[in-house]
Design brief:
Layout: H1 2-23, H2 33-165, H3 170-187
Helix pairs in contact: 1-2, 2-3
Length: about 190
């Protein structure tokens, strides 16, 4: 590229000067030794500028291009890492949600089983209490009947004693005993 610029500048400077020199007029550039010196000066200037300015400028631009490329690659890697982490977090969240659902289902199942067990226990206890109450009532009824029999017997004996004291006939005694037995049978 430097060569192309140097040749273009040389031609642009030499051609108009050559045209004016051939006409015989004095122009900016004479076609004598000074044109060769000016060409050499121009080439030296291009060479010095190329070494001191153009190459460091290209190196700096290449360095900046590499830095930008590296930054882009790092950004791409960071974006890929962020996407991977996002997917990983989403998977963990999904797993945690599934685990929570499983724990909830297990807890509900255990609670239902505990409730069923407690209800069965309460029913069994109620059945035992009812049976115990029935047994106690039966015992109380039996005791009451025995007490009533004893009282009827005592009344019958006392009535019989009173009647005997009054000297009743045999028929009266039998009728009283029959009445007492009938009352006892009614009570049972």
């Amino acid at each position: 590229m430097i060569r192309v610029l140097a040749i273009a500048a040389l031609l642009l400077g030499v051609l108009p000067a050559a045209a004016l020199a051939s006409e015989g007029g004095g122009g900016l550039i004479n076609l004598d030794r000074s044109i060769v010196i000016q060409g050499i000066n121009f080439l030296l200037l291009l060479l010095i500028l190329g070494k001191l300015l153009y190459k460091p400028l290209l190196a700096k631009m290449e360095e900046r291009t590499q830095a930008i490329r590296k930054s882009l690659e790092e950004a791409q890697a960071a974006r890929a890492e962020a996407q991977r982490e996002r997917e990983e977090h989403a998977a963990k969240l999904q797993a945690a949600y599934a685990e929570a659902q499983a724990i909830r289902a297990t807890a509900l199942k255990e609670a239902a089983e505990e409730q069923r067990r407690l209800v069965e226990g309460a029913r069994a206890e109620a059945g035992r209490l009812v049976e115990s109450a029935r047994n106690e009532m039966a015992q109380e009824v039996t005791r009451a009947r025995q007490a009533l029999r004893q009282e009827v017997v005592d009344l019958a004996i006392s009535a019989a004693e009173r009647l005997i004291r009054k000297s009743l006939r045999d028929e009266d005694h039998r009728r009283i005993v029959q009445d007492a037995i009938g009352r006892v049978d009614k009570v049972n």
